[in-house]
Amino acid sequence: MECGHCGEGLSVPRGARVVHCAHCRGVTRVGRRHGAMGFVVNMITNMAGGGRTRPATPPRLREAGYPRVRGDKRALLVGISYTGTHLPELSGPITDVKSMSFLLTQKYGFPSQCVLVLTDEERDPYRTPTKSNILLAMRWLVHGCGSGDSLVFHFSGHGDQVRDEDGDERDGKDEVLCPVDSDPDDDGSDIRDDEINAALVRPLVHGVRLHAIVDACHSGTVLDLPNLCKIKKY
């Protein structure tokens, strides 16, 4: 179902009476039709033909023209060279994205129409890797995902650390990804790990597999996951 506040697609747990939106943090009441669970069953059960119904596409995703997902594989690939910005220019991110796209489509069977690419070479204004576009594309990546889906998020670009403002970081710093419109005088212009977690991690339902490949400084905890793996080197 859609969030009653922002239109984001929401996955409805069995028996839920209200659903919390990870994007806007609004609360939407679950409608009841055709019996106690009729509405929920209509939204998430498998169809007779073996397919799975997906929530209606939120208005902002329709406006952006991001690809309509078919099948159980999709990927978001972001590469930023930062040409003409205050950040040092990088020569590899665009090539990284092209290589990852080739790997996913040719080796792992991802449909090419289900791979969304954002780079600073794109002419489509919705595919330029600004902060708002990257967060919107993250919503596209997880929208309507279900058990058995395989999702990939790949980012190649600059990363940084800023002061933690909500007290949830042991070291007092949030890890961030730097979009193409990053502003050195505005910490809010970068994408904090809290925002990434809210956009990519919290909406995942049981059985969804997300691979995140982040080639950026300070990227080890940029998804703000509850567990940290430390590998001992011998």
3D architecture notes:
- InterPro entries: Caspase-like_dom_sf, Metacaspase, Pept_C14_caspase, Znf_LSD1.
- One of its GO terms (cellular component) is cytoplasm.
- Residues 162-176 have a biased composition (Basic and acidic residues).
- Residues 162-191 are annotated as: Disordered.
- One of its GO terms (biological process) is proteolysis.
- It is a single chain.
- This protein is of the alpha/beta class and 234 residues long.
- The protein has 2 domains: 1-56, no CATH class; 58-215, Rossmann fold (3-Layer(aba) Sandwich).
- It contains 5 helices and 9 strands.
- Helix 4 (131-142) runs parallel beside helix 5 (193-201).
- It is globular.
- The model is unreliable at 32-51 (pLDDT under 50).
Short account of what is shown:
The chain has 234 residues and is an alpha/beta fold. 21% of the residues lie in helices and 19% in strands.
- Helix/strand class: alpha/beta
Q: What is the molecular shape? A: globular
Compute the number of helices: 5
Radius of gyration: 18 Å
Termini separation: 50 Å
In round numbers, the mean pLDDT is 82
Q: β content, as a range?
A: 15-25%
Order of helices and strands: EEHHEHEHEEEEHE
Write down the CATH class of the largest domain: Alpha Beta
Number of strands: 9
Largest sheet: 4 strands, parallel
What low-confidence regions span 5 or more consecutive residues with pLDDT below 50? 32-51
Give the number of domains: 2
CATH topology of the largest domain: Rossmann fold
Strand order of the largest sheet: 4-3-5-9
Helix share of residues?
10-25%
Architecture (CATH level 2) name of the largest domain: 3-Layer(aba) Sandwich
